[in-house]
């Protein structure tokens, strides 16, 4: 009997699961997967407990709990001046489900969706499952900008949508307003939908501002904005996300969502309402804390001999390892394995974010997670700096 469906036959195990397992096996300090090793803020935890105790334990409405949808709409206006009604908000099982439901609800088999490479690892498998074809446009180091002509050339009569992830995983790029204007202009010209993944919207460095594509002229009616609680509230395991957009966009996404999960953990949606209404001081403190950790990890990686790219947002630092590893290490996957086994620190090989023929673009790179306690970063530092001393 042929057990496995063709649809999933080509999928491997996700790189995050693979690296976690290897890290556990070798007792490595894990700067791989983007999951905080510190807890969510107490008021948010208490709101979830309170919700469980208040009989909020049955199915939520399919589109989401009213107070959570209101809080999401309010948050959009507070931070971006984006005016949406709660009816324009759909709650999903994390940004991951929002993206899959969006692809299923908005595109047909043989349609094309444009993605920027490196590309977050779930988007293209989502498209494959939907029968949709990816079109790739590269982001180029050191600032991970794209070539506007290459982007323009990726639009065809079959293009249904473009996905933009900002702040970007794995590079930390935050799309500039000028770049988003180029994207918007192409979307308008070719009548294409934009789907944005903004899960790192509050993790920003230096003076960086997050620009929401949906707020650019003409884009409100054709942009689906996706985000989630996980990063902003250090609760990646809660898997509460959302999609915001014009009524027909959201209704189309919900037609898929209603038959994937139907609705999402009710008490955690109630806690989401509390979380999103936290005062500005919470968001400012989060930003300051991440700034401190990013600066510290950048300094440490440089001291250990890496050449680093400076992220403007998000959970990660990309670094060039070629001055650090012994000669037998030939690519990023070998580097990640060597670092786990021989040094005891885990990172993610960023070639996982490239299609097969472009994996060489990331062969000299490693992705390190910033979202860790100071003790964890310190433990990684001790191992990495010993590396430098030993090789001298
Ligand atoms: N999008 C990006 C760019 C991510 O890095 C991640 C994972 N951290 C997700 C989506 C997943 O978000 P969620 O856990 O809300 O599904
Ligand atoms: N987004 C997280 C990362 O890039 C991982 C999420 C997952 O394991 N699917 O590290």
Describe the structure.
The chain is of the alpha/beta class. The protein has 2 domains: 6-40 and 281-391, Aspartate Aminotransferase, domain 1 (Alpha-Beta Complex); 42-279, 3-Layer(aba) Sandwich (Aspartate Aminotransferase, domain 2). It is 42% helix and 14% strand. The protein has 14 helices and 12 strands. The protein has helices at 6-9, 15-26, 42-53, 66-80, 94-106, 123-130, 148-154, 177-190, 229-232, 247-257, 266-276, 280-303, 332-343, 374-391; strands at residues 29-30, 89-92, 112-117, 133-138, 159-165, 193-197, 223-228, 241-244, 307-308, 316-320, 345-346, 365-369. Strands 2-8-7-6-5-3-4 form a 7-stranded mixed beta sheet, sandwiched between helices. Bound molecules: 4'-deoxy-4'-aminopyridoxal-5'-phosphate (PMP) and glutamine.
């Amino acid at each position: 009997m042929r057990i496995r469906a063709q649809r999933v036959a080509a999928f491997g195990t996700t790189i995050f699961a693979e690296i976690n397992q290897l890290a556990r096996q070798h007792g490595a300090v894990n700067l791989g997967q983007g999951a905080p090793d510190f807890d969510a803020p107490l008021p948010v935890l208490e709101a979830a407990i309170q919700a469980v105790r208040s009989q909020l334990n049955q199915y939520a409405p399919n589109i989401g709990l009213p107070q959570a949808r209101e809080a999401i709409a309010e948050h959009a206006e507070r931070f971006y001046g984006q005016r949406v009604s709660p009816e324009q908000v759909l709650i999903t099982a994390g940004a991951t489900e929002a993206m899959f439901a969006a692809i299923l609800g908005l595109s047909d088999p043989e349609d094309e969706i444009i993605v920027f490479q490196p590309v977050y690892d779930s988007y293209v498998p989502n498209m494959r499952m939907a029968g949709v074809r990816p079109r790739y446009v590269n982001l180029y180091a050191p600032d991970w900008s794209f070539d506007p002509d290459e982007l323009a050339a990726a639009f065809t009569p079959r293009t249904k949508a473009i996905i933009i992830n900002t702040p970007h995983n794995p590079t930390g790029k935050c799309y500039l307003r000028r770049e988003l204007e180029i994207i918007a202009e192409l979307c308008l010209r070719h009548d294409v939908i934009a789907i944005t993944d903004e899960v790192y919207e509050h993790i920003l460095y230096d003076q960086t501002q997050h620009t929401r594509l949906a707020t650019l002229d003409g884009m409100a009616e054709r942009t689906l904005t996706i985000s989630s609680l996980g990063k902003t509230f250090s609760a990646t395991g809660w898997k509460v996300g959302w999609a915001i957009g014009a009524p027909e966009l959201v209704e189309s996404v919900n037609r898929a969502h209603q038959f994937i999960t139907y609705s999402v953990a009710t008490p955690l949606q109630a806690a989401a309402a509390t979380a999103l209404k936290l005062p500005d001081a919470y968001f400012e403190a989060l930003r300051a804390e991440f700034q401190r950790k990013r600066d510290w990890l950048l300094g440490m990686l440089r001291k250990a001999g890496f050449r680093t790219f400076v992220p403007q947002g998000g959970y990660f630092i990309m670094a060039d390892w070629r001055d650090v590893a012994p000669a037998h290490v030939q690519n990023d996957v070998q580097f990640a394995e060597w670092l786990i086994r021989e040094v005891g620190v885990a990172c993610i090989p960023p070639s996982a974010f490239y299609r097969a023929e472009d994996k060489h673009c990331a062969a000299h790179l490693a992705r390190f997670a910033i979202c860790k306690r100071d003790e964890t970063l310190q433990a990684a530092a001790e191992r990495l700096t010993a590396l430098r001393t030993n090789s001298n």
